[in-house]
Design a protein that fits this description.
The protein has a single domain, classed as Vaccinia Virus protein VP39 (Rossmann fold), CATH 3.40.50.150. About 40% of the residues lie in helices and about 20% in strands. Helix 2 (about 50-60) packs parallel to helix 3 (about 80-85). With about 250 residues, the chain is α/β, with parallel strands linked by helices. The protein is globular. The protein has helices at about 30-45, 50-60, 80-85, 100-115, 150-160, 180-195, 200-210, 220-230, and strands spanning about 70, 95-100, 120-125, 135-140, 165-175, 235-240, 245-250. It starts with about 30 loop residues before the first helix and ends with a strand. Strands 3-2-1-4-5-7-6 form a seven-stranded mixed sheet, sandwiched between helices. It comes from Marinobacter zhanjiangensis.
């Protein structure tokens, strides 16, 4: 497995967005977040640096000849590039979608730096509006949690309907737990992870407040039920660290 991704120094800008006291406002994927996003997600999401290369491995296993692959909510393209390196150089197509202009602009930069012959189509639009067809591998990498809960099953059903038999959805999410004790324990451990990565208590608190009305986590049971309702089966967790998981959901063969 090769990895030819070449981040620039600008991509490694330190996340200090919440280092100073500031009025509360909802989190947005704007230019300021795009600038520090690689550092932000590495220091905020335990296991992210494991999930990304494994998306390449999973793509290699389940991409089908002549099919389409999608990275929905691609941000700066880390999972897009992982999928790209797991796909054949010809015969398939890869589309990355994000509704943030700032994210797509930087994603284009990283795609251009990547040494791989497979073209990547990037679309700046709401993933709820993205046409999906003839799919074998689709990735929602920490994306569904930002979609209106009332429209999540609609999106998953469209993905399932467009997925070839034997195809797969990779779904990574922050989850919540049915047990209050487990929720408290996993949240505390997640915050300790962030402290270990250099975030202050103020940064942790302000970021959490900014995300409260934007990132809506659900339980594993809710995810499983919705995926089955949408038309997937053999739903399994292949990775978990604290309150972050990545799942595989298969289209019946």
């Amino acid at each position: 497995m090769t990895d030819n991704r070449k981040p620039t120094k600008s991509a490694q800008a330190l996340d200090t967005l919440y280092a100073a006291d500031q009025p509360r406002q909802d989190f947005r994927f704007d230019a300021a977040v795009a600038r520090v996003f690689p550092d932000m997600i590495r220091r905020s999401v335990p296991g992210y640096t494991t999930i990304i290369p494994m998306i390449q491995v999973i793509t290699e296993q389940y991409v089908q000849p002549g099919s389409r692959c999608y990275d929905l909510g691609c941000s700066l393209g880390a999972s897009t590039l992982a999928m790209r390196h797991g796909m054949p150089a010809s015969g398939c197509t890869l589309t990355g979608v994000d509704n943030s202009d700032a994210m797509i602009e930087r994603c284009e930069h990283f795609i251009a730096l990547d040494d791989h012959p497979l073209p990547v189509e990037l679309r700046c639009e709401d993933i709820l509006d993205t046409p999906i067809e003839n799919a074998s591998v689709t990735t929602l990498n920490f994306t569904l949690q930002f979609v209106d809960p009332e429209r999540r099953v609609e999106l998953l059903a469209r993905i399932a309907a467009a997925t070839r038999p034997g195809g797969v959805l990779i779904l990574s999410e922050k989850i919540r737990f049915e047990s209050a004790n487990e929720q408290d324990t996993q949240t505390r451990l997640h915050h300790e992870f962030k402290r270990a990565n250099g975030y202050s208590d103020m940064e942790i608190s302000q970021k959490r407040s900014a995300l409260e009305q934007v990132l809506i986590p659900e339980t594993l049971a809710q995810h499983r039920q919705r995926l089955e309702q949408a038309g997937f089966e053999n739903i399994m967790v292949w990775y978990q660290c604290f309150n972050f998981v990545s799942m595989l959901a298969f289209k019946p063969a």
